[in-house]
Write a structure and sequence with these properties.
The protein has 146 residues and is of the alpha/beta class. The chain has six helices and six strands, in the order H-E-H-E-E-H-H-E-H-E-E-H. It has one domain: CBS-domain, CATH 3.10.580.10. The longest helix has 24 residues.
Length: 146
């Protein structure tokens, strides 16, 4: 099973914010869409580009350090700028390895030009593997029964 299979099932919608919005705004987006991360986009004048990713953990860490109230803390101050990505042609095992090695729960998917194509979460991967095992189990039982 590949990343493309997961995206075919879940879709390629990606929620995003700009770097200069408050973390309060980001939290409201996370809650509104029931998601755990937002891709941070900026513009270099000609096109939008991915600057980073902000997750629930990033915001919680900032609050644990008692930096500022959410209304005054900007996304650019807490986002992760070294974003680990994958491509649609990679197997799920590769995505799982990346997530485990980097201790991340959300993995942006980029195309051959580095443009954002979608995003997968650890939950998406677990669900895909579960569904694959259930189908495999069903086929094996059917085969055994004759």
């Amino acid at each position: 099973m590949f990343i493309s299979d997961v995206l075919c099932t879940k879709g390629v919608d990606v929620h995003s914010v700009g770097p200069d919005v408050t973390t309060d705004h980001a939290v409201r987006q996370l809650v509104r869409y029931n998601i755990g991360s937002l891709v941070v986009f900026g513009s270099d004048g000609r096109r939008r580009r991915m600057l980073g990713i902000v997750t629930e953990r990033d915001i919680l860490r900032a609050q644990a350090n008692r930096r500022k109230p959410l209304e005054r803390l900007l996304v650019r101050e807490v986002m992760s700028v070294e974003v680990v990505c994958t491509t649609v042609d990679k197997p799920l095992t590769d995505a799982m390895r990346l997530m485990t090695e980097h201790r991340i729960r959300h993995l942006p998917v980029v195309d051959d030009n580095g443009e954002l194509f979608g995003i997968v979460s650890i939950g998406d991967i677990v669900k895909a593997q579960h569904d694959e095992l259930v189908a495999e189990n069903h086929f094996m039982r059917t085969y055994i029964r004759g």
